[in-house]
Amino acid sequence: MKKLTYFAYASLLAALSGMAFPAIAQKSSSEAIAEYRAALQDGNPADLNAARGEILWKTARGPSNVSLEQCDLGVGVGKVKGAATKLPRYFADTKHVMDLESRLVHCMMTLQGFKADEFTTKTAFSNEGQRATVIEDLVAYIYDESREMSISVPQGHKEEKAAYARGKKIFFFKGGPYDFSCASCHSQDEKRIRLQDLPNLTAPEPAKAAFAQWPAYRVSQGALRTMQWRLYDCFRQQRFPELQYLSQTSIDLTTFLGVNANGGKMAAPAIKR
Ligand code: HEC
Fold first, then answer.
1. Residue 68's closest CA among 101, 44, 36, 104?
2. How far is the CA of 53 from the centre of ligand 1 (A)?
3. What number does the ligand 1 atom closest to the CA of 243 have?
4. How far is the CA of 234 from the centre of ligand 1 (A)?
5. Residue 57 and residue 68 in contact, taking contact as beta carbons nearer than 8 Å
6. Among 191, 190, 187, 212, which residue's Cα sits nearest to residue 200?
7. What is the pLDDT of residues 117-159, one digit of tens each?
8. CB of 89 within 8 A of CB of 100?
9. Nearest Cα to 106, choosing from 62, 73, 128?
10. Alpha carbon 196 to chain centroid, angstroms
11. Dist. CA 203 → ligand 1 center (Å)
């Protein structure tokens, strides 16, 4: 496991404060952030999540006291490598399109005996400063096993096509007090809110990059954040009603984003500001 280098921390502080290091402060914040990302490449704290996740995957847990090694993430029982590149997808055993987190929770329920109501945004997402949740560590491990592999979210089954079509509709659906849709913030180039670049998720290259980089370790929150969290937080920014953990809406949106990112290279868990 690699440790963050002093240089990485220094660059991070510079990027976040913009003022602490005069030489760096002269650069734009995007440049400073890009620099600190590069510095962090050999020390992503998500490596720790992934290492813990691998142990969790192989450890007998839950009321049934079994490991997750019999879980089928879509590429065969017990197989983890490449699984994240092909999700969401339709599963014949549940007759539903499932994203990675839904499928993982499905395995935790059916194999390990956990109950559905044990999985909510409160139990799945860690609060700032808290230890990572079991879900966060497992998700980090599963994505890490698909690093550098090509994204190929399937569209062969009619349910997969239906999920994509609904996801697209939701992406462009305007509502709430500001009459925002996802597209209001994510369909133009070079848009930003304060320090944050808003990727144009309707253009092929940014759409690939965005999907490829989630889940991600958020330095500003000191936590590994999953795709379900990403969408939950964008719903909040959109002033929409709270997005329910593992809801159909979340799976449909992830399908839309995933299919649009096909051909991109997985780089998750990435590291983000
Ligand atoms: C009010 C503006 C706003 C709306 C509306 C919004 N987002 Fe976001 N989105 C953001 C911000 C801010 C970020 C974070 C950028 C950062 O941290 O660098 C973000 C990041 C993302 C990312 C990750 C991009 C990356 O490269 O890391 C995805 C994916 C995403 N949003 C999807 C959505 C979806 C889907 C919707 C509709 C449900 C949506 N967003 C609605 C503001 C918005």
1. 104
2. 26
3. 38
4. 5
5. yes
6. 187
7. 999 999 999 998 889 999 999 999 999 999 999 999 999 999 9
8. no
9. 73
10. 17
11. 14
